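Support request, please re-run this one:
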Amino acid sequence: MFNFFSDSVMAATSWYKIPCEHGMLQLKTTLTGGQSFRWKPHMSTEDQEAFIGVFANIVWILKQSKSDLMYQIVGELPYPNSTDRDVSGSTDNLAGKSHKTSSENLASTRFKVDEPEQYSSAGSLLYPLNYYEQLLRVYFRLDVDLNECYQQWIKCHTHFQSSAGQFYAVRQLNQDPVENLFSFICSQNNNISRISGLVEKICTHYGTKICDYQGTTYYNFPDVKSLASPEVESHLRELSFGYRARYIQKSAEEIIVKGNLEWFRKLQQLDYKEAHKELLTLTGIGPKVADCICLMSLNHLQAIPVDTHVFQIARHYLPHLGKVKTISGRLYAEIGDKFREIYGPMAGWAQTVLFCADLRQFKENVDQGKTQASDEASNDQFKSAKRKKR
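Re-run finished. Output below.
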């Protein structure tokens, strides 16, 4: 597919902004706390801390002011349309005329935003600014009043008030389910730094180039078909994916059989428990990874990924867990149900806040990428073997 930026270095565009009070989004923790693995600190010429990353076929630089979320578009690919028709080179479309051909474009299952009605008629961006604003609003769930949520969660249990009441504005990302699923297959028995490296290898070898910027080439996350071929497993093993190579190739193959993006859309429409059950049918997907996918990309905000760290947190609510050494299937369900009983339909988001609030590197405002992701066999989401309680 033609794109404007992949064959040349693109200078960052102007800074754009959307209203977002600083107290409504803690950017660093939200982006680097183990939800997504494609964000890195970026050197900014100004005082604000900035991050560079990829989602929705776009390379973004994000930072905050007191009143706004600020963004630059470093490079982008056109929105994939339902017929794979190359609309991006059309002079008429570039003049701002409509190019949308189908209301059933399944790319919105990944992007969470519909294909724009037209291209931008001016400037360096492909689409009107409201498209990028919508992507950010959906990605960060900015339409959710997080202050109201925090106040409700504080009322639910004293542990939230004491542990997370002052740890503000951790948002639950609304991610591409394809990227989310394969990223968390990579998370098994891994740390954040290595997970990020494996995810980038997938993008580099199977994704489409977006642009070059400051000496780095950026790629989008590939579609499922690109990972489903039998030779993918051996190639990923050569790239040091280990046993995860088979999980990635087999699950991609199974997703294609199930309907690919139509299947993902179905998972978004199912209730939480049915979606969780369906995810467990894939090779390499256990209860914890299934819950991560439900929570982070399928809009099932009551999902509770139970790892050894969350298991420790759960002792505040289930004292008998103090005598338990391992997480069985029964206990896994009991812990999730208890969180849902206390925190309600957005229990998974509350759990994410508690998880981040209790991590030492965020308490000390240090991001060293040492938070450990868990072994799927033990239902760990993020191991914290090096974390010491003080």
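The longest strand covers residues 68-76. The chain has a mean pLDDT of 85.
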